[in-house]
Design a protein that fits this description.
This protein is an alpha/beta fold. It has a domain of about 120 residues: ANL, C-terminal domain (GMP Synthetase, Chain A, domain 3, 2-Layer Sandwich), CATH 3.30.300.30. About 30% of the residues lie in helices and about 25% in strands. The chain is built from 18 helices and 30 strands. The strands form eight sheets. It has an eight-stranded mixed beta sheet with strand order 12-11-8-6-7-14-15-23, sandwiched between helices. A hairpin with a 2-residue loop joins strand 26 and strand 27. Helix 3 packs antiparallel against helix 4, helix 6 packs across helix 7 and helix 12 packs across helix 13. About 50% of the residues are buried. Bound molecules: 5'-O-[(S)-butoxy(hydroxy)phosphoryl]adenosine (WT7). 5'-O-[(S)-butoxy(hydroxy)phosphoryl]adenosine (WT7) binds next to helix 10, strand 20, strand 24 and strand 25.
């Protein structure tokens, strides 16, 4: 079964796209009809990009969890909502039907309430990829608390920064998480973070790995004990809090080109409509299919395409706790076969990593259930695209290359599976409601085809971020000030002769490491905290698996007993301050950095050296000390 607002042909796409641009409010008002509201909106859209202020479905009231759960409990209670596949393939998977998930979300929402949580409170969630993570997220949304999910790979310091920034009153975590043959001691990392988080009153702890943990009297409570209290009362049902369309639904922290990560804010109605509309149309989901998004819920991809998009569409979403390469590189294919996965949505970095194992791990696996493949997070190189198409899709499955960002809430540019054409390396065409604009450095729009420039978006769509938590001015400066009346994405882009878009990568000081965003300034701050480090400069360089690798130039005046050892120490510091995902791949000790007379680091030169393009450094005459370039070149790592 398909959805009434699912685009069914290329002609229909063109027609719908034009309507969405010519009559946006009429268009989104009709899409809005397909959701469950407590009160209709008074105005579809109210906006200006100057402040910025964007309000969708203004005046409407709703609860997103009724759209994700209650309405499906009425019509399809026994359809699986979540299929969970554990890290360890010898353990059993778990299926929760819509009825069961609704029950568990209500129960846990009551646990939250019993522990003092209420509408508007911020709750930090630091959990493994288990069904209880989805339950925790939805339970927050049920009572109108704002969730801030922090990826399990972040350090205590990063969690603490995020908790303090949002002034969270509660943490939901687990004793530990499994990750391949490793375990992560989540609770003890939380304990360390909470030393600097006085706003936290309660910590709810799920038992998962069974590792011993410290539980502080009155503050720390076991998930299971709290659930028991609800069970004994037999009053599991929790009515959904009536939310304003523009009430905050969640905060998700992401890195920018300056300072600390910022809390991107999404609100209830617009985000719901966008996550749902893009899920249904991009993947062309049909009722009964199994959708497997391999992202972690700690990132926006997990929020939108494991939880909110699929569940608001009554779909079956598969979530996986482990990693693609453990116990072996056949793990994804085993899951596809075991659960007859129909849609597989993953990242180019995962594809490249699996590609490096050859086709042996795929041999003998039945992948015939797959109808649609997807990629997200970074540009996909043609080699990986063809490998995915031939070996996983058997050349019969459309590949959707979905371009979007934490800030956009859902996909903005992508082909629609089997409906609009794919082109390797191209995200292709904008979704209905999306008006991409390419601009030059001076902000002038570059019209026509076969051109490239900085990618901006002209008009709001329902899923656009509303603010950065606690600092609206930062939101304005970051996204809405570079070019007047446009949302600036930070990406470079080209448009081909047919109007297809190809994203070429970040044009700001943001790296994309295995599809994860890391700000160079944030990373430099972390490295500079290491004792003996005077200054550092970070650039990205092409990396076969990760897409981009991290290259650090470091001025160090401490004592080295051994350079390799110092490098490892610096990596340790980065892991402590940010998390293991931000560890540099290469560190080069230098005696100086190439700076202009005004003291600005010439990153262009450092980038070229890191890339190995040492004979094309361009003009170095404006450097304060041109000789330093020779030293850096000759000691290149
Ligand atoms: C940045 C956003 C969107 C969820 C995952 C990452 C890059 C994302 C693509 C794509 C080329 C892509 C962009 C973007 N990016 N998707 N299909 N092709 N680049 O979310 O951490 O907010 O990062 O990822 O550079 O700006 P994020």
């Amino acid at each position: 079964m398909s959805y009434p607002y699912q685009i069914k042909s290329l002609e229909e796409y063109r027609k719908i796209y034009n309507q969405s641009i010519e009559h946006p409010t009429k268009f989104w008002s009709e899409i809005g009809e397909h959701f469950k509201w407590h009160k209709q909106w008074d105005e579809v859209l109210h906006w200006n990009f100057k402040e910025p202020k964007v309000e969708w479905f203004k005046g409407a009231r709703l609860n997103i969890t009724e759209n994700c759960l209650d309405r499906w409990v009425e019509t399809q209670p026994d359809i699986p909502a979540i299929i969970w596949e554990p890290n360890d393939p010898t353990k059993s998977s778990i299926t929760l039907t819509y009825k069961e998930l609704h029950f568990k979300v209500c129960q846990f929402a009551n646990v939250l309430k019993n522990n003092g949580a209420k509408k508007g409170d911020r709750i930090c969630i630091y959990m493994p990829m288990v069904p209880e993570l989805v339950i925790a997220v939805l339970a927050c949304a049920r009572i109108g608390a704002i969730h801030s999910v922090v990826f399990g790979g972040f350090s205590a310091q990063s969690i603490s920064d995020r908790i303090q920034d949002a002034q969270c009153s509660m943490v939901i975590t687990a004793d530990g998480a499994f990750r391949g043959n490793k375990t992560i001691p989540l609770k003890s990392i939380i304990d360390e973070a909470l030393l600097t988080c006085p706003s936290i009153e309660k910590v709810l702890v799920l038992t998962h790995t069974g590792v011993p943990v410290s539980m502080i009297n009155e503050r720390d409570l076991w998930w299971e004990d709290e659930i028991k209290k609800i069970e004994s009362q037999e009053n599991w049902y929790c009515p959904a809090e009536s939310m304003d369309a523009e009430d905050m639904l969640f905060i998700l922290y992401t890195s920018g080109s300056t300072g600390k990560p910022k809390g991107v804010v999404h609100t209830c109605a617009g985000y719901m409509v966008w996550a749902n509309y893009t899920f249904v149309n991009v993947f062309q989901y049909k009722k009964g299919q199994v959708h497997f998004c391999t992202a972690d819920i700690g990132w926006i991809t997990g929020h939108s395409y494991i939880i909110y998009g699929p569940l608001s569409a009554g779909a079956t979403t598969l979530m996986f706790e482990g990693i693609p390469t453990w116990p072996d590189a056949g793990r994804f294919w085993e899951i596809v076969e075991k659960h007859s996965v129909n849609i597989l949505y993953t990242a180019p970095t995962a594809i490249r990593s699996l590609m490096s194992f050859g086709i042996e791990p795929i041999m003998g696996k039945n992948l015939s259930s797959i109808d649609v493949l997807g990629t997200v997070g970074e540009p996909i190189n043609e080699e990986a695209w063809h490998w995915y198409n031939e070996n996983i899709g058997n050349k019969k499955c459309p590949i959707v290359d979905t371009w979007w960002q934490t800030e956009t809430g859902g996909v903005l540019i992508s082909n629609l599976a089997g409906i609009t054409e794919s082109k390797p390396g191209f995200a292709t065409l904008p979704l209905p409601g999306i008006q991409p604009v390419l601009v030059d450095e001076s902000g002038k729009e570059i019209k026509g085809n076969e051109v490239s420039g900085n990618l901006c978006i002209k008009y709001p769509w329902p899923g656009i971020l509303r603010t950065t938590y606690g600092d609206h001015e930062r939101c304005r400066i970051n996204y809405f000030s570079a070019y007047p009346d446009l949302y600036f994405t930070g990406d470079g882009c080209l448009r081909d002769e047919n109007g297809n878009y190809r994203i070429t990568g970040r044009v700001d000081d943001v790296l994309n490491i295995s599809g994860h965003r890391i700000g160079t300034a944030e990373l430099e701050n972390a490295i500079n905290m290491h004792t003996g480090v005077v200054e550092s400069a970070i650039v990205g360089y092409p990396h076969d698996i990760k897409g981009q690798g991290i290259y650090a130039y470091v001025i160090f005046n401490g004592m080295h007993t051994d350079e390799e050892h110092t490098k490892q120490d610096i990596c340790q510091t980065v892991a402590k301050i940010i998390g293991a995902i931000a560890k540099p791949d290469k560190i080069q000790f230098v005696t100086g950095l190439p700076k202009t007379r005004s003291g600005k680091i010439m990153r262009r030169i450092l980038r070229k050296i890191a890339e190995g393009d040492i004979n094309n450094l361009g003009d170095t005459s404006t450097l304060l000390d041109p000789l330093i370039v020779e030293e850096i070149k000759s000691n290149r790592q």
